[in-house]
Specification:
It comes from Serinibacter salmoneus. This protein has about 350 residues and is α/β, with parallel strands linked by helices. The protein has ten helices and nine strands.
């Protein structure tokens, strides 16, 4: 709801009172200006001439017009001094769906991550009010941004992630890579390397860390993790994928999995394990290139109960000086022309 008003209404009251007082004082103290009058003999007939009567009437109307314009300009100036504003009161209904985008940035996934982030961007374009977070992980996890409904920030960060992850890992073997692109990639995935030379793509640890990003544990909220990985685990994670899936399930977090990876016997076994664990915990499983992934994920998220939070109304105050400024300018312009016409 939008309403108009004065931020400092008392300033307008004072200005209006001063203006009225000045007008009344001037009216009550008016007197004929006879001090410098010169009397002319045999000129009494002049006041009876139609031309004189007409000119005198125009003069008096001009004076009253000048008074009205002065009052109008003074009133407009008083409104401006009182700061005219528009107040827009909104009652935001924050959707209680929280979604954590959980991205594997290990070496085997870099070639597929740009496509997966593109899927994330498609999802974000369809969301409305959901809070979104992005976590990237390899040996350890890094939160790119926590849960937020600032969609401009979300799009900006995801677009940046898509740009730096669009890196051809094969160019590292023949030294044909662009050093700036490599530096950007390293800077983005900083914090996901735990220092181990043997561990990589610890999917269980990555999923568990994503599950810990949800705040407001006591609130009635829908929570979803969208996990993207190839499940090519090398090393010893603290949590297995099965353990993390159990943890996610116990916290009533919905699990959606996206698989991206090369085709081989080893990857097929990892894919099968990935799908089996996710679906056995009531989750959804999609291939990264599946055109039905986005609409199916959206349908799954939208089916979750969304309860509106009780939030305080937001009031936005915007200065609105246009109309009093236009009135003041117009009144002064007409008044100037009128006074020139009256030769005052």
């Amino acid at each position: 709801m939008v309403t108009a008003g004065l931020q400092h209404w008392w300033v307008f009251v004072l200005a209006l009172a001063a203006l009225v007082a000045a007008f009344l004082l001037g009216y009550l103290r008016r007197r004929p200006a006879l001090g410098e009058a010169r009397w002319v003999a045999n000129a009494g007939y002049l006041t009876a001439l139609p031309s004189f009567t007409r000119a005198l009437g125009q003069y008096r109307r001009g004076l009253w017009g000048a008074v009205v314009l002065t009052l109008l300009a003074g009133t407009a100036a008083g409104v401006l001094a009182a700061r005219p504003v528009q107040r827009e009161s909104t009652n935001p209904e924050l959707a209680t769906r929280d979604i954590v985008l959980c991205l594997d940035v290990s070496g085997s996934m870099v070639g597929y991550d740009a496509e997966i982030v593109d899927t994330f961007l498609d999802l974000v374009e369809e969301f409305d009010g959901e809070r979104i977070a992005l976590s990237i992980w390899n040996q350890t996890s890094r939160t790119v941004f926590p849960l937020t409904d600032d969609y401009d920030l979300v799009r900006e960060e995801l677009a940046h992630a898509q740009d730096v992850l669009d890196f051809d890992v094969a160019t590292l073997d023949d030294n044909t890579y662009d050093p700036e692109d490599l530096d950007s990639l390293i800077a983005f995935i900083a914090g996901t390397d735990g220092g181990s030379e043997t561990d990589t793509s610890l999917i269980g640890d990555g999923l568990a860390s994503c599950g810990l990003l949800f705040d407001e544990a006591d609130a009635e909220r829908s929570r979803t993790v969208i996990l993207a990985s190839d499940n090519q685990v090398i090393g010893e994670p603290v949590f297995s994928l099965e353990d993390s899936a159990d943890f996610i399930d116990r916290r009533d977090i919905n699990l959606v999995a996206i698989y991206g990876g090369e085709e081989s016997l080893a990857s097929e076994a990892a894919r099968t394990e990935y799908e089996t664990i996710v679906t056995s915990h009531g989750g959804l499983f999609f291939e990264a290139a599946d055109p039905e992934a986005v609409p199916a994920i959206l349908e799954s998220v939208e089916q979750e109960q969304a309860v509106d939070l009780d939030v305080e109304p937001e009031v936005t105050i915007t200065d609105a000086p246009a109309w009093p400024l236009a009135v003041l300018g117009g009144a002064l312009l007409v008044l100037g022309g009128l006074l020139w016409r009256l030769r005052l």
